[in-house]
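[audit] Reproducing an earlier prediction to check determinism. Same input, same settings, fresh worker. If the tokens differ from the archived copy the diff job will pick it up downstream; this log only records the rerun itself.
[audit] input (299 residues):
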Amino acid sequence: MTLNAKRALHIAEVLTEALPYIQSFVGKTIVIKYGGHAMEDRDLQSNFAKDVVLMKTVGMNPIIVHGGGPQIGALLKRLGKETRFIQGMRVTDQDTMDVVEMVLGGQVNPSIVHLINRHGGRAVGLTGKDGQFILAKKLPLHRLKPELKASEIIDLGHVGEVDSIDTTLLNTLIQNHFIPVVAPIGVDQAGTSYNINADWVASALAQVLKAEKLMLLTNTAGILDHSQKRISRLGKKQLTRLLKDGKTIGGGMIPKAECALSALRGGVHAVHILDGRHPHAILLEIFTHAGVGTLIQGE
């Protein structure tokens, strides 16, 4: 068998393996949180866009929610604006919020839309302020004060959480075969803008849209066990136990695991926490038996 014939056979085998997955997910909504290294490396950016276009082409309904923390931090630094974090969250005064909106809505979002469209998709960019489809409220942060044996509430400024979501706009875009690309900015009833964690926006969208899957791209191989090996599959109860033991899951993986549990409790069928540094991570996770991340499902 020639080299070309072997390559053709391999492609045929890959397509055959992918076929039952494609058939299962036709017409299903898949919410993808896009962030981390996958947003910073040019080759990975291109791979991501191709993956999303392919998903749409075979009949799935991908919705992208993106972050942009490093880009926000870089612009604030250029402007000479000090960045302060409390418990991993950026304190966001009005000037900082202006920068957040400028970067997420005016820089990062259009660049993702352009990339998807350049690879043959029909992407549309929006923030939660468009049509007021993401209503937000201020996020209260409680910090323990040992000397008082009580907690204090920290004002983070324009840092919010999802209050409610109106799916009318998104459903209109999906029904007309567009790929929505969402910047995680919400607005309250008074018109005040809030920066919201992109993982939690993705989780909330997946729940209200009754998504088949929520996919969270990270800079790690997924959830790791005590020996730092990837756990390929978890049930909801298992994940809850791992969170409670305080040893297996730590650092930045804790909020992602909590986000996954929230999505599952809200009716999302499966959550994938996967390594966005891996080329074509989304396709490998959805269309192959092995996958490249951690699949979490309810029992």
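[audit] rerun output stored. Observation attached for the diff report: The CA atoms of residues 264 and 298 lie 7 Å apart.
[audit] end
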